[in-house]
Design brief:
By secondary structure, the chain is α+β, with helices and mostly antiparallel strands. Helix content is about 45%, strand content about 20%. The protein has a six-stranded mixed β-sheet with strand order 1-2-6-3-5-4, sandwiched between helices. A five-stranded mixed β-sheet has the order 7-11-8-10-9, with helices on both faces. It is globular, with a radius of gyration of 23 Å. InterPro entries: Metalloenz_LuxS/M16, MPP/UQCRC_Complex, Pept_M16_N, Pept_M16_Zn_BS, Peptidase_M16_C. This is Peptidase M16. It comes from Candidatus Falkowbacteria bacterium CG10_big_fil_rev_8_21_14_0_10_37_14. GO terms for molecular function: metal ion binding; metalloendopeptidase activity.
């Protein structure tokens, strides 16, 4: 059973004891990311994440930080998204205090050395190149740019190469002081817990002060007809993302959209995996993703297909979208999908790091919402919501989502003529 606490400095703490594990995960997640940036700042959240590993007043360089954790076999990393940024250490329970010492030191006492900043610019530029050279990854960025346009929600989290090259130490300090405070952070301690964790964490994180927190800008998201974006690349395989705007985080339809997306492309027995790969041999990878932000969301099907058969693939996807609006999902299929989700949930929460992220993501996204529909839910409550989804709920949501004016198609491939694709975007 998880417990929520609030420390004297306002830091939110969630402790999640787990029986039968010898590991502990410490995760600090801040309610900030690339959606909180201006155009000039785009990429700063992600770059700042890198800089916390570059040295503190106590541990002056990257080697000092990494060797302290490597010495006890700990795993550690960080991640930046559009709405949150997280820093975590997973270690044997006996080394929990060391993890608290190192991570608090990084987040409170980082030096942001100018030489390190200049050196890291090359690293991040290569990270951007890596993503842009991999269409299977980059198609998601193209799709979000298509539906959200020239807004923070539509910009790449890593930013532009021009921005990365121009960032100054002063920008890092300003953003850190503005966004990284006890009021915008949630700390999760999951797994094998130490005695009196609240007092222990308070000792190490007492120096995390309140920030001058700036909220993200609302998403610009208008329904103005089907949208298409082609990113020309001379590839042997075309990559497509065909989707619709869907529901925001913690929506009343959150369980229904989970079930709907799995029906379409969430398993090897899903409709689109069967149609695109097994019956027509058009794709190796097929997946259906549901992404929910605090004030918006989308659901999309992604696949890599032969360049000369992309139109056939698009027609198959649209046919399956349309079918959900006219036919109820059969009981046998619905039961199978629910069982899949109920079976995968405990598998996804077997380790302390997975449990920590499960609670941290909820806490931060609910904090960002003006009027959250619900509070933090436990895994059994998640499963209960999935169990309650009816075929009629799926059809009703499908009718809202799968409309011609709500279609969006992003393509990476050797195409210069958009007309054939525009003609296909209809239901």
């Amino acid at each position: 059973m998880y417990q929520e606490h609030k420390l004297a400095n306002g830091l939110k703490l969630i402790t999640v004891p787990m029986a039968g594990t010898e590991t502990t995960t410490l995760l600090v997640m801040f309610a900030t990311g690339s959606r909180f940036e201006s155009r000039e700042q785009n990429g700063l959240s992600h770059f700042l994440e890198h800089m916390f590993f570059k040295g503190t007043t106590k541990r002056p360089d990257t080697m000092s930080i990494s060797s302290a954790l490597d010495n006890v076999g700990a795993e550690f990393n960080a991640f930046t998204s559009k709405e949150y940024t997280g820093y975590w250490i997973k270690t044997a329970g006996e080394h929990t205090e060391l993890a608290l010492d190192v991570l608090s030191d990084m987040l409170i006492n980082s030096k942001f050395d100018e030489n390190e900043i200049n050196r890291e610019k090359g690293v991040i530029t290569e990270e951007i190149n890596m993503y842009q050279d991999n269409p299977m990854w980059y198609i998601e960025e193209i799709f979000e740019a298509l539906i959200y346009g020239d807004t923070p929600a539509g910009w790449d989290t890593a930013g532009t190469k021009e921005n990365v090259a121009g960032f100054t130490r002063e920008q890092f300090i300003t953003y850190w002081q503005q966004q990284y405070g006890s009021d915008s952070a949630t700390l999760i301690l999951a797994g094998k817990l130490p005695e009196n964790p609240e007092a222990l964490i308070g000792r190490y994180f007492d120096g995390l002060n309140k920030s001058t927190y700036k909220k993200q800008l609302p998403t610009v998201d208008t329904f103005n007809g089907p949208k298409l974006k082609i990113h020309f690349k001379d590839t042997d395989q075309a990559h497509l993302s065909l989707g619709v705007r869907s529901v925001p985080y913690a929506s009343a339809d959150e369980s229904t959209i989970k079930v709907l997306s799995v029906i379409l492309g969430g398993s090897m027995s899903s409709r689109l995996f069967t149609q695109l790969r097994e019956r027509n041999g058009l794709a190796y990878y097929v997946r259906c993703n549901q992404e929910s932000y605090t004030d918006t969301g989308y659901m999309t099907t992604q696949a890599g297909v032969p360049t000369d058969k992309i139109e056939q693939a698009i027609k198959i996807i649209l046919a399956e979208y349309s079918k959900l609006t006219t036919e109820l999902v059969p009981d046998e299929e619905l039961t199978r999908v629910k069982n899949l989700l109920k079976g995968k949930t405990p598998l996804s929460l077997e380790s302390s790091d997975e449990v920590a992220e499960f609670y941290a993501r909820q806490a931060v996204l609910l904090f960002e919402q003006e009027n959250p529909r619900r509070g933090i839910i436990k895994p059994d409550e998640l499963l209960k919501g999935i169990d309650g989804v009816r075929a009629e709920d799926i059809q009703a949501l499908a009718k809202k989502l799968f409309r011609p004016e709500n279609l969006n198609l992003a393509v990476i491939g050797p195409y210069k003529d958009s007309a054939p694709f525009e003609a296909l975007l209809k239901l």
